[in-house]
Amino acid sequence: MNVLVAVAALALATMVAAGLMLFARTRAPEGSRFSDGDRASGVFGAVATGFSVLLGFLIFLGFSSYDASRQGAETEAVLVLQQAQTAQFMAQDVSSDLSGQLVCYARSVATTEWDSLDDGRLGERVNPWGAELFLTMSDVTPGTATEQSAYDRWMDQTAAREEARLTRVHGMEGIVPLPLWVTLGVLSLVLLGFMLLFADPAEGAGTQVALIGSVTVVMGALVLLLVFFDHPHGDGLGRLQPTAMERTLRLLDTEFTVAGVTVTPPCDGRGRALRG
């Protein structure tokens, strides 16, 4: 969620809550609608505690998912770099094909695939260059002990890379199920409704607005934080970006240059296969 949109939504919710409090204040008796304020405060505390515990648990779960996606992206990028190194120990024609396809894989992840993560279009699709790498390796028959060792190492790295990719994309569709969102919505309305019962014309309007406004800001900010963690990919402050894979692309260029390896990726800058 864009920061400006989040601030605007929070401000709007606070203004609506303040307006409802001022309206309720005009119809409430002096001293509020409660004859025993201490008892009412105790009930409000119990309801607020239940809301806070549920929301706190969900935010912790959301942060765990966010961090897992970040770590998955980092691990995947490192494995692509390691596989490029492993490929250099295979036969020259195979090494050349694998190196170019790895560059295309990295480009695809950092651009096209990340855009799909942002708008939720990735779904169950595999990375096309992951399939190309598999097809290339399926025809490989190691001829020397070095090639056999590189082949075995490559297979281990491929399995680890695919696992890291799944970890990176697992939070795309959100981790908070609909029933929990409904529960949070109901509890929020209950809390705000309960606050309106504390409306008291004997108190100043500013005090009443501050009373419900502070509660609304805290509740709204925490819910927006949960929304942020529930969808960690995309544009905006704090969102996960393909920084690790972009760094890997730069390192691949540097390492190929230092090693004197010429690589011609069969794709454009966004990892789309070249035709012809």
Q: What does this molecule look like?
A:
With 276 residues, the protein is an all-alpha fold. Helix content is 73%, strand content 0%. α2 runs antiparallel to α3 (92-119) and α3 runs antiparallel to α4 (128-138). It is elongated and about 90 Å long.
Gist?
The chain is mainly alpha-helical. The chain is built from eight helices and no strands.
Radius of gyration: 27 Å
Helix content: over 70%
Total strands: 0
Summarize the main sheet.
none
- On the 0 to 100 scale, the average pLDDT is 87
- β-strand percent reads under 5%
- What characteristic shape results from the CA principal axes? elongated
Instruction: Work out the oligomeric state of the chains in this entry.
Output: single chain
Structural class: mainly alpha
Number of helices, counting only DSSP H or I runs of 4 residues or more:
8
Short descriptors:
8 helices; mainly alpha; 276 residues
Layout: helices, strands, pairs:
Layout: H1 3-27, H2 37-87, H3 92-119, H4 128-138, H5 145-169, H6 178-196, H7 205-230, H8 243-259
Helix pairs in contact: 1-7, 2-3, 2-5, 2-6, 2-7, 2-8, 3-4, 3-8, 6-7
